[in-house]
Amino acid sequence: MQARTLSRWERVALGVILLLAMFSRFYMLGDRVMSHDEALHTKFSWYLYSGSGYRHNPMMHGPLLFHMTALNYFLFGVNDFVARIFPAVLGVLLVLSPFLFRRWLGRGGALIASLMLLISPAISYYNRYIRHDTPNMLMAVLLLWAILKYLEEGRSRWLYAIGAFFALLYTTKETCYIYTLIYFILLVIPFILNVLRTRWARPNLLVPFLALVVVLLVCVGVYGLALTQGEVVEQALDANTRVAKTIVPWWGNVALYLALVLVIGDVVVAYFGVGEATLRRMRLFDVLMLVGTLTLPLGSAFLIQLAGVDMMNLYSALTTGSLSGIDGASLTITAFFIAGTLALAAALGWWWGQRRWLTAALIAGTIFTVLYTTIFTNPVGLLSGLVGSLAYWMAQQGVQRGTQPGYYYLLLMPLYEYLPLVFSLLGAGTLAVGGLRRLFAGRPASTPDTGTAEVPAGTEAAAVESWVDSGTPFVTRFFPLFALGWTALAWIAYTYAGEKMPWLTVHIALPSIFLAAWFLGRVAEGVDWRTWWKQQGWVLAVALPLLAVGVTVFVDAAGRARVALSGGLATAGPALAQLDPLFQAVGGFLGAAAALAAVVWAWRRVGNRPALRVVVLTLAAFLALLTVRTMTTFNYVTYDSATEFLVYAHGAPDVKIALQQIEDVSWRTTGSPRDVKVAYGEREYTIFSWYLHDFPNAYYYGQTPDPVQLRESPVVIAGWPQWAAVEAILGDDYQYFSYKFLWWPLEDYRDLTWQRIKNALTDPELRQALWDIAWKRDYRRYAQVKGRTITLQQWPYRDEFRLYVRRDLAEQIWGYRLGSTGAATPIPQATPLGDPYTGADLLLTPAATISLPGATPRDVAAAPDGSLYVTDTQGQRIWHVSRQGAVLNSWGGEGSGPGQFREPWGVAVDAEGNVYVADTWNHRIQKFSARGEYLSSWGALGQFNRGDINGEGLFYGPRALAVGPDGYLYVTDTGNKRVQVFDRDGHFLWEFGGAGRDPGELHEPVGLAFNSRGEVVLADSWNLRMQVLLRTGVPVYQWSVPVWSVENSEDKPYVAVDAADRIFVSDSSHGRVLIFDAQGVALGTLGMNRGLQFPAGLALTADGQLFVADPHAGTVVGFTLADLGL
């Protein structure tokens, strides 16, 4: 048993660790640019500090972080450093927290756990990050400590501590539900085992109890299987927030309902079978009752969902504060389960222990209420905290935020947390060998070690056999098994969870550290260090690393020597460069041999068991040194570089460079650093709303900038969706600087297969390239192997912004900085506004040119047999031609009768060969057979706004149409600024769009096509952008195309998407076709010198040919995509 007080060396070690923890958590704390999420947390904390109040929103997680950050603003001022003080302080406390577990970890284990938390790359990074994960981890650790202390001592004060830490845990973030579930499972297991070891008052109920447990486990497994078969339905609450629900098969819901009934049945059978007096003497029962009753009301959202309430609507109502979107029945069900769970929790708690439960519940409720209502100023916060947090998590589960693969953490943990990963596995192996049976092999509960558990007055004594569920011996044996279960369940929970993000890695690393530290502490305490030193065991510790170095040098040099000498020696004698690797190989071999001899000698002196322990500890010390390297590099060198896989949706360093420029302009124009008028838009809102919070003249223009306000701003910031609109307003009076805004790590690990893994291991170049990334985050060799450009300047996963500065100011300012001392600010390189696609023409010769004399080919579509259908706008006809140009058929004529047209623009062909034509100024769609036989038509002139049921199936100048992957016909109703969807017989199904500039809204939509994910890729021409939308119209992303001509009514862009998701868009006025990748990054153009004058409609054939309709040239031009070289 460990001494209760710290020894002198432990106090010294604790002091050193405290100093190192404070230095590591606070050094350069404010240097890093805020990430996307950090900027939101800092800004909402600032709202609270500045008097604008705080309203709990489940999307922003719990209120604790915001209140403490606002307090720090009040005490220390407002800046990046202060914003991160709270998580940094809690990070220091987290590093020290293992000393609370010293009695169960052991002296060495507690010290090792603190050291591992100190140097953990992921945990140290997010301790310096204004997120909720650090408070979440610390409160989870403190809750566990209070639970174990109660099991050890049985004093009521630890129950009250459980209530306090439980409430604080639930004011952090939704991972508290995962912690609670894991803890509950790991406490239920020994409780059930103790129940089974106890003499039952009614032994005849034991068999039914076991049968119910078995059936319960089967039901849980069936429900788990049903979740994997469920259908996910997504819904966009706004442009930035998506929620989803999983529709589970009926048999899964039956299994879940049955499981809930079986839980109640098991509890009832155990109560009558074991007897109340026996249960009340079990401390595990006390903990389960307290945690269970505190959790019950917080889990009401789960019961509400089971009752059929739409959680997406409930979450939306709690977010907006409006209940208008919820029907009366759902409101009644919600109120019933909230009130019911509160009443049931109170009744059970009162039965269990009136004074103890009431005190713990009051402590928990006070903390919870004060924080969620912001000291009673926001009463709705109590409801959103009670129900909204879990509702948000369930609504987010199906969204799969981050869309990372299931093996995501299997990649991150070996890259960053390899130290706890290795030794937690060894600890798990040790426990597996030892067996679970030793857990309950201790003394009876009546021994002095069981403490002084309080039994409520009035409960009768029961003659039962002894059990062990409390006391120091139990907790000491229980703790490593708990750490093992905690680690295993954390891996399972976060791997299953829909959201997989790098910051969640810390919640797997934390239990792994406790398990690894327990194992290493046990190994260290098993060595008699005095005897080991006397027997020269230190030689083994020194020789082992030397042996590893010698072998490494030998293997590396031998490989280089084999390459150098493979071509034979130079004719004039071997060159030194040829022999140098050979000499190194010999040196490495001799060094390894000497070290091996020393290892063998020392091993024999100390014996097998001590030698094995030293090997383990030496390996731990080596991995710890590597971890220190990883941690320091990550935290203080590459902390905001996307070369790190934990840097995700992070602000690039360019943000602070731009802020420096803004201050330069402000000094020059106002005489102060922040009084300049700065305009910024929706795309860059999250980060710049924080950094411009103290600019009194900052102007947020959202997605639609006001021309007057914009031109009054000497500085304008715009993300790529607003470039075209902003530049159209600013004109030549401004110039811009291009910067990286947000970036993400490389994600080539997606879609891994065993073949890809095998190739990575067997290809020496690729293997070395991957090693360069893992060891030093160097992507140069990988870029060479893959034939790609991967540099920080041209990072593949980045979002950019432009800083527009009035031209006269830019010319005057840079070269000096008014109001500062020291070196002058370097002159930034500005870019004049212009055509972003100039000089990107691809050298591709047309493979075919089809001439249609006298015709004006506007659009073209490929038939299943490879032939082409072409609309002739002025000739009022449809041409059916072969790809060699032979005319197979034509039909049409001017008029409004069946088969007649008034400027047909768009054409599409379905899988059966039926031809659909957008008969533009007859405001209708006509359907023909493959031979041109008229089949049907629908539509008439009508000008309506989206959502008006009177406008369904009516058009105002439809320009394009396409058959979707669902077989439906999608028509751009250009004049009505919308897209209408029909079945192939012309029955209206739904519509999307509507006039406007916001995502999903449209202004003169024309061409559309579908990518490999079935999303609509749409040319939103007068908004000067491309939009990608779900087939229901929910916006996914967009990018600017600032070159289309709004003034030229004939300039209507068409779209095609190939099998590689390359997007082809016509730019008629500039005589070219623009080519983008799936994310909207420009790849090149097909221009006028490739046989195009005024390209319009586009069509792709199954064998990879692109055909372009050119109404000015009277031709249809074909290109072979395989020759693009992209």
User: What is the 3D form?
Assistant: globular
Give the helix tally. 36
Measured by DSSP, the beta-strand proportion falls in 15-25%
- Runs in which pLDDT lies below 50 for 5 or more consecutive residues are 439-467, 815-827
Could you tell me how far the N terminus lies from the C terminus, measured between alpha carbons in angstroms? 69 Å
> Any idea what the radius of gyration is?
35 Å
Describe the biggest sheet?
7 strands, mixed
Number of distinct beta strands? 33
The computed structural class is alpha+beta
The average pLDDT score comes to 85
Structure in a nutshell:
This protein is α+β, with helices and mostly antiparallel strands.
What does this structure look like?
With 1126 residues, the chain is of the alpha+beta class. The chain has 36 helices and 33 strands. The strands form 8 sheets. Strands 3, 4, 5, 6, 7, 8 and 9 form a 7-stranded mixed beta sheet that branches. Strands 10-33-32-31 form a 4-stranded antiparallel beta sheet, with no helix packed on it. A 4-stranded antiparallel beta sheet has the order 11-12-13-14, with no helix packed on it. Strand 12 (868-872) and strand 13 (877-881) form a beta hairpin.
